[in-house]
Specification:
With about 90 residues, the protein is mostly helical. It contains five helices and no strands.
Length: about 90
């Protein structure tokens, strides 16, 4: 794994661990506009980047905000679209 890959893995592990330990911050992420960026990253040609985005989105799914059905529906639809059509509308 190249040094950039090791750095990406370290940062991903740190983000997932941070949100696991500080779950109150999970509720802030949607307001900051990072979720669409994570889904766009899932289309990257480097397989490590979509894998990282999936790990972070999985951790974000633990947020209390996820209980908002509309928001959850958008995430589910986007995930399915990425898997099937390679697009997130």
């Amino acid at each position: 794994m190249p040094p950039q890959g090791e750095m990406l893995e370290t940062i991903t592990t740190a983000i997932v661990a941070f949100f696991g330990a500080q779950q109150m911050y999970l509720d802030q992420v949607p307001q900051l506009g990072h979720i669409p960026k994570l889904f766009r990253a899932m289309k990257h040609r480097n397989d490590a980047i979509p894998a990282t985005a999936i790990q972070i989105v999985h951790q974000l799914s633990e947020s209390e905000v996820r209980q908002d059905r509309h928001h959850l529906q958008d995430i589910t639809t986007c995930t399915v679209n990425l898997a099937v059509k390679n697009t997130c509308i």
